Structures are given as C-alpha cells and as structure tokens.
Amino acid sequence: MIELGNYNELEVLRDTSVGLFLGSKTGTEILLPNKYVPKSAEIGDRLNVFCYLDHEERPIATTLEPTVIRNHFGFLKVVEVNRIGAFMDWGLEKHLLVPFSEQRDKMKEGQWYVIRCYMDDVSFRLVGSNKIYKFLTNEKLTVKEREEVDLLFTRMTDLGWEVIINDLHKGLVYADEIFRKVAVGKRTKGFIKKIRPDNKIDVSLQPLGEKILEPTARAIYERLKSSDGFLPLHDKSDPMVIKTEMQMSKKTFKKGIGILYKDRKIEIKEDGIYLV
User: Fold this and answer.
1) How many domains would you assign to the chain?
2) Domain containing 13 — which CATH number?
3) Rounded CA separation 268/228 (Å)
4) Rounded CA gap, 193 and 147, in Å?
5) pLDDT tens sequence across 125-179
6) Nearest to residue 132, comparing CAs of 204, 72, 70, 79?
7) Is residue 140 part of a domain?
8) 200 Cβ contact partners less than 8 Å away, ≥ 6 residues apart
9) 169-174 and 201-204 as β-strands: parallel, antiparallel, unpaired?
10) d(Cα 143, Cα 165) in Å, to the nearest integer?
11) 40 and 23 within one domain
12) Do the beta carbons of residue 6 and residue 69 sit within 8 Å?
C-alpha cells in the first residue's frame, strides 16, 4: 500500500517516456515523473519518495521534500488566498490548501501560520488546518516527566508560551523560565517538567535536575574564557542583569558558579567572578 502524504520506500518497476513507475509490496504502482527521477536510478532500485496528488488529482511520487507531512504540524507561508481558501507553500509544486472552514482566523497572503496536514475524510485530499488544537489531546499521554521531547511553539499567553509536544500533546513553557529568543513556529528540544493531575504539562527548555548543572557551569566557564577571564556578575547581582547577560535565571547561574568554585576554576570577588 502506498500512503499519500508520507514518504514511501518503493521499487523501480519500469521506465517509460513519462517517468519511472514505482511499486509497493502490495502491487500498487505510482508514477515518478521524469523531472524527479535521479540520474542513477535503475530498474530494481528502491527509492524513498514522497507521494501526493498532483494538480490533476493524480497520485504521483516526488523526490522533493515537503516541509510538513501527513498527520504532522508545520510552519508554512500563505502564497495565495482565493474563493476556496488559503494556499500554503510546503515545498512542493502543488500548494497545500487550507479551506476557510479550517482557518482559526482569516488567513492573509504573505503571513506564516502553524498548520496541521491531514487527509480529508470526504474528498480524500491532503489539506491543512490552522485549527490546530482539535488535533491535540492530553487525555492519554505518551510522555513522562523528565523525558526529552520535540517542541513547536504556537502562541504566547499571559503565563508563557504554548507548545505542541511530539506533534501529539499541548504543553506550556512559563515565561520566566525562557532565557533565549523564541517565536511562533520555532522547533526545539525540551523536557517534560511536570505532569499535573488534570494532565496539563509543564515544559522546560533546559535539562532538569542535576543535568542542568554541568552544562550551565560549562556555559559560564566558556563565557569567562571569551571575556578575558572576568565577568562583573556574582551571587548578589540583580536577577534581570544575569538574565540579560547570560540568558539564564539567577538560581541557575548561582548553581553554575557554585560548581566552578568547588572545582577551583573561579574566584568570587566583590566586583565579579574571575578565572583561576
């Protein structure tokens, strides 16, 4: 079976004037047009291709790489808006349609949005949706505390940034725990900090527990080396100054310099910290 909207590893069956016909183990065939055929491809080779419907609604394969695949989220730009809906650039010749019914707010040409790509049950076409939260559930969680996860930032709230976890769950990174620039559509790694009784998930952008200490100490140490062995910061410095200068909280900074001090790598003086 060939899955539309996803990558498929298929065998090259035959060469024709319009391209290569590829086949799956179940006997299904699909065309890889000439413009996508690798020069080294031969009969019997196996190719990893993305499969979708072309402008004439025919299944085709391509070696182009889309920026989002079926049942996943992506950050896409609107290239056209017409009477049908908004069309997104997802790296393929045929743009991805987001119907008006799947737009949280009216989408505008040139703007970027977080989109879920899925197969429409009625038309059996690949479409996008900006109503992303209906695709997320925290009822049955597939993550546990302290686990490293993939994050996608979706929007800023009064508490912090809402994120999509592993393309499955909704989580929150509190504003006072973010020490680097983030934005809608940014992907990064994170860690499950806490799972609440109602299955709401708190997320951290930094390793938890003891794991944070060594990287933090190393970051301070490297900053000292690049600053001629001195930083005008110490355990009594203003928290906002530390956050601005080091992109970390004062608590984290104090833990880091504590490790360096115990290892006799720094001296702590009234005007700041020095490399030994």
Assistant:
1) 4
2) 2.40.50.140
3) 15
4) 8
5) 999 999 999 999 999 999 999 999 999 999 999 999 999 999 999 999 999 888 7
6) 72
7) no
8) 138, 171, 172
9) parallel
10) 9
11) yes
12) yes
